[in-house]
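Researcher: Next entry in the queue.
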Amino acid sequence: MTEPIRTAVSLDGEDIHWDPSDDLSYGRYLGLDQVLSAQTLRTQEHDEMMFIIIHQASELWLKLCLHELEAAIGLLQRDETRPAMKMLARIARVQEQLTQSWAVLATMTPSDYLKFRDSLGQSSGFQSWQYRCLEYRLGNKNARMARVFAREPDVQAKVMAALNAPSLYDETLRMASRRGLEVPAAALDRDWSKAYEPTEAVEAVWREVYLNTERWWEIYEFAEKLVDLEQKFQQWRFNHMKTVERIIGFRRGTGGSSGVAYLVKALELRLFPELWTVRTAL
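Model: Structure for this entry, 282 residues:
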C-alpha cells in the first residue's frame, strides 16, 4: 500500500509557543517593524520596491562584512590568525551573496528602470559609507572618496577613521614580520591613509612563504584566505559592472560618475598586489 499524500503538516505532539510570554517574539527580536517599514517608494512603479530592497539588503550584508573584518583585524594584531581566518572566510561567503544580488537586479529591464530613475536624484551607491569603510579597511585608500560625506560629520568621522587605520594587508605584513619574515621597514611603518605601493621586496617575502610552505604554513594559509577574499570581491565588482551595463548602458551614474567606464577602471585595482604577482615569480 502506498504512503498517503500529506496536504498539511501535523502539529500533534508539538509544544508551540502560540503566545510568547517573555514578550520576545521573532519579529520583535529582529526588529521587523522597522526593517519592513523602511521601504519608502517615491513612485508607483512596480520595480522600485525590488530596487530598494536589493540595496537595503546589500547594506545589511556590508554591515556584517565590516563586523567580521574589524574583528579579524583585531585578532590579527594579537597574532590570533586562525580565528581571523574563519572570519575572512565568512566575508568571502557574504561576498557571494552580494554577487548573487546583481542577478536579481538584472531582471529589471532598461525601460523598467527609466520609469523611476529620475526620482533617485543624485543618490548613488557611490555614497555608501559602509562600502567606503570596507574598501579602506581592505586597502583601497583614496582620500578623495571621503569628500562625498562632508555634509554628514558623524559618517565622515567613521570613514576617515577607516582611511587612517592600517588595512588588512598592512596588518598581515606586520604579522608576517613578527613571525620572522624579512618584511621591509617601509611597509611596517608608513602613512596608512596613503595607497599601498607594491615592491619587489614584499613580493620576495611571499615567494619565501610559497616556496617553503611547511615552515610558514599558517602564514601561507592566511595568504590564501586573502586571495580568496579578493577574488570574491572582484567577482562582485565585475557582476556590478555588467548589471549596470545591462540596465543603463554607458549612461552616467546618478551620483555623477561615468557609470560603466568607472566600474571597469575599478576592476584593475589590487588589494593584496604581491600575493598575485608572486604567482608569476614562483
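Model: The longest helix spans residues 217-248.
Researcher: Noted, moving on.
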